[in-house]
C-alpha cells in the first residue's frame, strides 16, 4: 500500500512551534487571571497589557525611542571600537598585550557598579551611552579578534606564497574569515547594548523628555501602575527580539551561500 | 650524450629543524629537473611536506643549501594542498583570480587568464559557484586551476588527491598528466600511494625518516598513460619495485 506523507510548508515548520508555544503561554496566563480574578495591580492580563500599550502610547513610545537611540549609538560605537581594536590586536601583538587586560577589566566589572561612577563624571546621556557601549564592546572585540586569528593556515601560507602584503592578507583573507565570528559577536552585543542602556537608565533615573523605558518602569512601579510596567517590559522584550532577529537575518544574508552556520539557520 | 642541464631545485646536505626541536630533514640531497614529474613517497613524518614548503620559500633550511634555478616570485611556484584550501566566501572564479588580484590585476583584465585556467581543469561553467556547492573533486580542480593561473614554473602538490574516492582520483590523475603534457610544468608531488606514484611520475624518490633517500626510481613508461598502462605488467613491476623500496624505508633499512 502506498502512503504519502503530507509535509507542512517550510515556513510553518520553522515558525509554527514557537508561535504556538507563545500563544499557549499567553492564553494560559489570560485564562488564569480571569478565572482567579487576579487584580491588575498584582498581575495584569495580557489583554490589559496590550490595552495599556495603546492607551499609554504617548508616554511609552517616546521613551522607547530614547532607549533605542542609546542602544544603537552604543552598538555602532562598539562595532567601530571592537572591530578596530581587534584589527590592531592581530596586526601588532604588543597592542593586544597592552590593551587586552583593560578590555577584560571592563568586561568582568558589573555594569551596575560602573554606572553610578560614570554618572558622576559624565553628562547623563553620555554616561548611558558609555554604559551600553561597555557591555556591547567586549563580545564584538573578542569574537572578531578570534576570527581574525582563525584564518585557515594553508590560506595564510598561500597568501605568503603569492607575496601578499600585510594589508592584502587582512583585506582579502582575515576580514572575510572573521565575518562569521564578528556576526556572532554582533548578535550577542546587540542584546547586551539594550541591556546596558536599560541598566544605565535605571541608574541615571532621568525624568522628563529624555526619559527612557527603564525610567518609565521605575516611575510606574512607584505609582503601582503594574499594567504600564508590564507594557514597558513587553516593549523592551520585543525590542530585544527585533534586534536579535534583524542581526540573525543580516548574518543569514551575508553568510548564506558559504558558511555552515547560515545554512543551519535555513534548515 | 645529452648536455647536463642545471636542476631547477637542488638540495645539498640540507637540514631542517623546527623551533620545537623536531628534526624534519637531515643531510637531504635531491635535484628537481625541469619538466619532470617527481613524486616524493614515504611514510608519514619523513619530511615530504617540509620539502615542498622549503621549495616554495615558506620555510628556510636550517643547514646545508637549497639552490633554485629561478627567482622566487609571485609566478614561479604553484601550490596545491591536501585540502582544496579555497576561500569559502568567494566564488570559484574569485578563488582562481586570487593570485592575479594579489599581483594588482583588475578583475576584467585578469578574466581571460582565469577563464583559461578554469577551462583547463574542466570547470569552465562553474566560475560563479561557491566552493560548498561543488563536489570534492571539483573543489580540487578549482584549487589546481588557482595554482596554474599564473603558469608557474614548478607546481608543488601535497597529497592533493588523498581525500578523494578512487574513481575521482583516477580521473584527476589522468587530467593532471594531460595538463602537464600540455603546459610542460615541472611537478613535485607528494603521496602515500605506491600505485598513484607509479602511474603519475617520471621519477620517484622514496624517503625514510628525516628525509633520508632510500631509492630513486625512474619510471620509464611512455606518455600519455592510461588504462593500458595501469593494467600492464610493466606497471605491476614498477609497483612491486617501489613497494619494496617503501618497505625498506619503513623498516629503516638503508642498504
Mean pLDDT of chain B: 91
Q: CATH top level of the domain at 1-70 and 191-255 in chain B?
A: Alpha Beta
Spans of chain B of at least 5 consecutive residues whose pLDDT stays below 50 are: none
Uncertain regions of chain A: pLDDT < 50 for 5+ in a row? none
Give a structural overview.
The complex is a heterodimer of chains A (267) and B (255). Chain A contains eleven helices and no strands. Chain A is mainly alpha-helical. The two termini of chain A are 31 Å apart. Chain B has a domain at 1-70 and 191-255: P-loop containing nucleotide triphosphate hydrolases (Rossmann fold). Chain B is 37% helix and 23% strand. Chain B has helices at 48-56, 92-102, 107-120, 136-148, 166-183, 194-200, 227-230, 233-251; strands at 9-17, 23-32, 37-41, 63-68, 77-80, 154-158, 186-191, 203-208, 212-218. In chain B, strands 5-6-7-3-8-9 form a six-stranded mixed β-sheet, sandwiched between helices. A three-stranded antiparallel β-sheet of chain B has the order 2-1-4, with helices on one face. The longest helix of chain B is centred in the C-terminal third of the chain and has 19 residues, at 233-251. The radius of gyration of chain B is 18 Å and the shape is globular. The two termini of chain B are 30 Å apart. Chains A and B meet through helix 7 and helix 8 of A and helix 2 of B.
Amino acid at each position: 500500500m502506498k502512503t504519502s506523507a503530507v509535509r507542512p510548508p517550510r515556513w510553518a515548520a520553522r515558525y509554527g512551534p514557537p508561535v504556538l508555544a507563545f500563544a499557549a503561554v499567553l492564553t494560559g496566563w489570560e485564562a488564569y487571571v480571569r478565572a482567579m480574578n487576579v487584580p491588575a495591580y498584582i498581575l495584569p492580563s495580557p489583554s490589559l497589557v496590550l490595552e495599556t500599550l495603546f492607551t499609554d502610547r504617548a508616554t511609552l513610545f517616546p521613551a522607547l525611542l530614547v532607549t533605542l537611540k542609546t542602544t544603537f549609538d552604543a552598538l555602532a560605537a562598539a562595532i567601530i571600537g571592537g572591530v578596530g581594536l581587534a584589527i590592531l590586536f592581530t596586526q601588532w601583538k604588543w597592542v593586544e598585550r597592552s590593551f587586552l587586560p583593560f578590555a577584560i577589566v571592563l568586561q568582568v566589572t558589573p555594569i551596575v557598579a560602573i554606572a553610578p561612577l560614570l554618572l558622576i563624571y559624565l553628562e547623563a546621556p553620555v554616561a548611558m551611552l558609555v554604559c551600553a557601549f561597555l557591555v556591547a564592546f567586549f563580545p564584538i572585540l573578542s569574537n572578531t579578534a578570534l576570527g581574525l586569528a582563525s584564518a585557515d593556515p594553508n590560506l595564510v601560507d598561500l597568501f605568503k606564497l603569492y607575496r601578499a602584503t600585510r594589508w592584502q592578507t587582512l583585506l582579502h583573507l582575515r576580514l572575510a574569515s572573521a565575518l562569521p565570528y564578528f556576526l556572532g559577536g554582533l548578535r550577542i552585543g546587540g542584546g547586551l547594548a539594550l541591556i546596558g542602556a536599560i541598566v544605565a537608565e535605571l541608574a541615571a533615573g532621568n525624568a522628563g523628555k529624555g526619559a527612557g523605558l527603564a525610567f518609565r518602569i521605575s516611575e510606574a512601579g512607584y505609582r503601582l501602575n503594574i499594567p504600564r510596567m508590564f507594557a514597558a517590559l513587553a516593549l523592551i522584550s520585543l525590542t530585544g527580539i527585533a534586534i536579535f532577529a534583524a542581526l540573525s537575518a543580516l548574518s543569514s544574508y551575508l553568510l548564506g551561500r558559504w558558511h555552515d552556520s547560515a545554512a543551519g539557520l535555513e534548515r | 650524450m645529452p648536455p647536463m642541464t642545471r636542476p631547477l631545485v637542488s638540495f645539498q646536505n640540507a637540514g631542517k629543524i623546527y623551533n620545537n626541536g623536531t628534526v624534519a630533514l637531515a643531510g637531504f640531497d635531491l635535484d628537481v629537473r625541469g619538466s619532470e614529474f617527481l613524486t616524493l613517497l614515504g611514510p608519514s613524518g619523513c619530511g615530504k611536506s617540509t620539502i615542498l614548503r622549503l621549495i616554495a620559500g615558506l620555510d628556510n633550511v636550517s643547514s646545508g643549501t637549497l639552490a633554485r634555478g629561478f627567482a622566487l616570485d609571485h609566478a614561479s611556484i604553484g601550490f596545491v594542498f591536501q585540502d582544496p584550501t579555497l576561500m569559502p566566501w568567494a566564488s570559484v572564479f574569485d578563488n582562481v583570480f586570487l593570485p592575479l588580484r594579489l599581483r594588482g590585476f583588475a578583475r576584467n583584465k585578469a578574466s581571460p587568464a582565469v577563464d583559461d585556467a578554469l577551462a583547463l581543469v574542466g570547470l569552465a561553467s562553474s566560475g560563479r559557484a561557491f566552493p560548498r556547492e561543488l563536489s570534492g573533486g571539483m573543489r580540487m580542480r578549482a584549487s589546481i586551476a588557482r595554482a596554474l593561473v599564473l603558469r608557474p614554473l614548478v607546481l608543488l602538490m601535497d597529497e592533493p588527491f588523498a581525500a578523494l574516492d578512487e574513481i575521482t582520483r583516477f580521473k584527476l590523475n589522468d587530467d593532471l598528466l594531460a595538463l602537464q603534457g600540455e603546459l610542460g610544468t615541472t611537478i613535485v608531488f607528494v603521496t602515500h600511494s605506491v600505485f598513484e606514484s607509479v602511474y603519475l611520475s617520471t621519477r620517484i624518490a622514496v624517503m625514510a625518516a628525516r628525509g633520508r633517500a632510500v631509492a630513486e626510481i625512474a619510471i620509464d613508461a611512455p606518455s600519455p598513460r592510461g588504462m593500458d598502462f595501469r593494467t600492464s605488467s610493466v606497471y605491476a613491476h614498477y609497483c612491486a619495485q617501489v613497494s619494496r623500496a617503501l618497505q625498506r624505508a619503513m623498516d629503516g633499512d638503508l642498504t
